[in-house]
Amino acid sequence: xxxxxxxxxxxxxxxxxxxxxxxxxxxxxxxxxxxxxxxxxxxxxxxxxxxxxxxxxxxxxxxxxxxxxxxxxxxxxxxxxxxxxxxxxxxxxxxxxxxxxxxxxxxxxxxxxxxxxxxxxxxxxxxxxxxxxxxxxxxxxxxxxxxxxxxxxxxxxxxxxxxxxxxxxxxxxxxxxxxxxxxxxxxxxxxxxxxxxxxxxxxxxxxxxxxxxxxxxxxxxxxxxxxxxxxxxxxxxxxxxxxxxxxxxxxxxxxxxxxxxxxxxxxxxxxxxxxxxxxxxxxxxxxxxxxxxxxxxxxxxxxxxxxxxxxxxxxxxxxxxxxxxxxxxxxxxxxxxxxxxxxxxxxxxxxxxxxxxxxxxxxxxxxxxxxxxxxxxxxxxxxxxxxxxxxxxxxxxxxxxxxxxxxxxxx
Length: 411
Known about the structure:
Blueprint: H1 2-6, E1 23-35, E2 43-60, E3 86-93, H2 95-108, E4 113-118, H3 125-139, E5 144-149, H4 159-182, E6 188-194, H5 197-212, E7 219-225, H6 231-241, E8 247-252, H7 257-265, H8 282-288, E9 292-295, H9 309-312, H10 314-325, H11 337-345, H12 350-367, H13 369-381, H14 392-400
Parallel strand pairs: 1-5, 4-5, 4-6, 6-7, 7-8, 8-9
Antiparallel strand pairs: 1-2, 2-3
C-alpha cells in the first residue's frame, strides 16, 4: 500500500486543458490548511491562522476509462483527462468571492441544495479533492459540492496531529454551517463525513446546536461513513444536539481494520463505525434516536483496510446520490438498501433490469434486514423461487447470483 502511494506523482492540481470526452465537477473549498510551497499542491497539511477558500474544477474521465468508485490517479504529469482525474481549474479566492461562487451555483442547481464533504485521517489535500469529485460524479447528486478540508499531514504516523487538527477546525466548520443556515438561497444542506472527519462534523453540529438552541430544519441529511468516533462520546453528542436533528445515516463495517487499530489506540472502546447494529445496546439506541444504520460488512469493495466502502462501492455511492437528489432519507421503514438498487437498475426492459438489480443487491440482502424481508417478493415478481420449488435452471441462476436461502448450490 505504501509503495502504491509513493508511486503517485505530486502536484496533480496544476490545471490542464479540458477533454471533451471527460465530465467536470466544480466545487468550493473551505479549509484551515496552510498554503503549499510546491506548484500544483495548493494547500499543505499544516495549519493556517485563518480559513482559506478555493474554487476547483476536476475533470473525471469517461466511464469507458474507469470503474465507478475508482479515483484514476495519473501515473505521470501532466495528467491525461481522457484516462486520469485531472484539474482544469484551481484558483484560490477570498471569502467574498467564495460567497458569490456559492450563491451563483446554488441558484443554478435544481433544488438549491448543498452537499458538504469532510474527509478523514491520512489525507493530503489532493486526496480529498479527487475523492469528493469521484463521489459527486458517481453518485449523480445534484447538490452544490462544498469540500471542508482540515490539516491532515497524510501520514500513518501523524494520527495524533490529525486528530488535534480536527479540533482546531471545529470553529471554522461551524462557521460554514452557520453561513449555510443563514443564506436564503440555500434550501437544503446535507453532510457526508468519513472516518476521523465524522468527529469534526459531529462536534461542529453540536456546537451549532448549543449556540442556536437547536439545528436548522434545512439541515436534512447527515451521513456518517466509517466514523472514527467513540460510541460513548457519540451518545452524548446526539443528546446535546437536541430533539430537532437532521436524518442521520450511519455506515458501519465490522471488518474495518483501520477502526480496529483506532480502538486499540483509544483504550479499547468501540468505534462507532465498527459496531454490530443488531446487538444491544446499539440496536436499541439507534432506534431510539431514529438513526438509520447500513451495515456494509459483507460488501466487498474498497481498499484492503475496508475503510472506504461507502465511496468505492458503485451501488452504495449511487444510492446516496439518488436519495439526496430526491430529498429523501437513505432508507425508510419499508424499503431496504437492496430495494433501492433494484429500483435504480430496472429500466424499460423491466424483467432484465430487475434481474440485474437482484444480482447487484443479493450480497446486500445478507446485511440489510429490510432487503432480506423484501427479497423473496422481488424474486417472485420475476417468476423465480428461492424455496427450491422452481426449475433447475432457476435454481442454477439463483446459485450464480448467490441468492440468500438458495439450497443445493455447489460450494
